[in-house]
Amino acid sequence: MTLDASQSGQDGFEEPMRRHDFSWSKSSVASWLADHGGKELGAGALFALICEQLAANGIPISRANCALQDTHPQVASRGFLWRLGEGIEESEFLIGQRGSKNYQLSPIWVIHQGASAVRRRLSGPDANLDFPVLHELKARGVTDYIAMPLVFSDNSRHFISFATDHEGGFSVEHLTHLNDLMPLICLRLELDHSHMVTRTFLNTYMGERASKRIIGGTIRRNQGEAIDAILLYSDLRQFTKMADMLTPEEVIQILGDFYDAVARPVEEFGGDIIKMMGDGILTIFPYSENSQENAACNAASAARQALAGLHKIKPERLPEGIDSVRAGFALHAGQVTFGNVGSTSRLDFTVIGPAVNEVVRVETLTKTLGHSILTTSAFADLKCVQGLMSLGSHALRGVREPKEIFTVMEI
Question: Which CATH code, of 3.30.70.1230, 3.30.450.20, 3.10.150.10, 1.25.40.10, is assigned to 216-408?
């Protein structure tokens, strides 16, 4: 079943939504929407408050839904379901679900296709349950349902719906009030949505620690902060050979598998991903005076889980002579400077300092020493990992004195 804007009035929607003489100044909901008081609530909390305000001011909504498109690489949109007396429930609609039958048989799809509105009565002689979701709503006591687009200033179309269990459904006055308030509702939701989009972009491309600093105003060039941290660096093995013998698409897939295997445990154990550099990834586990050992344990656990995750990867195709995806890992403890570095027109949030250089140089030794995980003495001295074995002192390029290197006996 499909519905376009020209068809949306066939079930009596256009007449109730015809604009009447309604003054926003008489609506306490409109005043509340217009004055946010300098507060950012987040889209979910804001939508819940909007619904509560509407219900408290005479619009008998028992259930409402809002779907806002997202910019996350894996998430198409975020849904916010509100039920009277139960609060808000948030959900994610993944990119792959765009082609699902449930989506294509939903009012959301119709609104995304350009319909100006969808109104369905679920009780009485005019009942029309032509969407599967309407059967569920009717079973929950819903008598009337309306869905509308939220058209943001960039012309993107989002979705909002309201349902009622009120006997007789929504009245003309209820729908008119909603219609008059929609521009303000849309404006407020777009404002919070833009904040959500900004955070998503920054978290995805910069990491949570950097994004918090940028949003907090740390945006000036050459600003930096000294941080004590455990550094974990990993580099993919035989990447040059794979790049020479595989298609770009296959290389990208293997890189994605590698980054997933490393990044997931790092994030699970509280680390921050600082850089993904070609076939290498640099992460840190910041610590305070009393949490150094805990950070070291978390970093070591992340390295072990990442290595185990790599062993489970079964790429469809690898070049001859490469039987699995492998990587080297290095762990080090030291101080780094975290902040803005770059030109006057292009800045990069990163970490710099001797500790960064040292952990990268230690990782290169995994190739010659034949061990997947190596640590410095600064890390080994924390005595977090049992079974460390010294491999002697080794020269590191760019480091003045040879450094004692350790490995984990069993992974």
Answer: 3.30.70.1230
Strand order in the sheet with 144-151: 87-94, 75-83, 63-69, 157-164, 144-151, 118-121
Nearest to 149 by CA among 181, 178, 110, 122: 110
The angle at the Cα of 281, spanning 69 to 388, to the nearest 5 degrees, equals 135
Q: Is there a contact between 340 and 221 (Cβ–Cβ < 8 Å)?
A: yes
Alpha helices in 207-247 (DSSP H): 208-215, 239-245
Label residue 219 by pLDDT band (50, 70, 90): low
pTM over 0.90: no
Q: How far apart are CA 348 and CA 343, in angstroms?
A: 9
pLDDT in tens, 292-314: 889 999 999 999 999 999 988 87
Please, are residues 96 and 66 in contact by the beta-carbon 8 Å criterion? no
Beta bridge partners of 77: 69, 93
Collapsing DSSP to helix, strand or coil, 385 comes out as: coil
Residue 119 contacts residue 148 (beta carbons within 8 Å): no
| The token pair that represents 55 in the structure block | 């219900």
Listed in order, the ranges of the chain carrying CATH 3.30.450.40 are 24-206
* CB-based contact 385:374 (threshold 8 Å): no
Indicate the fold that domain 24-206 takes in CATH: Beta-Lactamase (3.30.450)
pLDDT per position as a tens digit, 57-95: 889 999 999 999 887 777 778 899 999 999 899 988 877
Residue 224, phi then psi, degrees to nearest 5: -150, 160
Every domain of the chain with CATH number 3.30.70.1230 lies at: 216-408
